[in-house]
Specification:
By secondary structure, the protein is mainly alpha-helical. Helix content is 72%, strand content 0%. It has four helices and no strands. Helix 1 packs across helix 4, helix 2 crosses helix 4 and helix 3 packs across helix 4. The protein is globular, with a radius of gyration of 14 Å.
Length: 75
């Protein structure tokens, strides 16, 4: 199924927001949501525990949701 124009815009916005995340969190988001790696796989790649991956993904998604909820202000 083809993504809608709104979906593509949201995805582009999320990618922009990810550049502002702490690098490790951005890596976790990229691997989990875009590369479909499991939390266990990510934990093995980064030599951390699976709960650490879970926690960082939760923090990253909360940050992304917060920024997405902000009104769009143009200068």
């Amino acid at each position: 199924e083809e993504p809608t124009e709104d979906s593509l815009r949201n995805l582009e916005r999320i990618r922009e927001i990810m550049t502002e995340l702490p690098p490790r969190e951005a890596d976790f988001v990229e691997l989990y949501f875009f590369n479909h790696k499991t939390q266990t796989d990510i934990a093995e790649i980064f030599k951390v525990s699976q709960p650490t991956v879970c926690y960082r993904l939760q923090r990253a998604t909360a940050r992304i949701r917060f920024v997405l909820s902000l009104p769009d202000i143009t200068t």
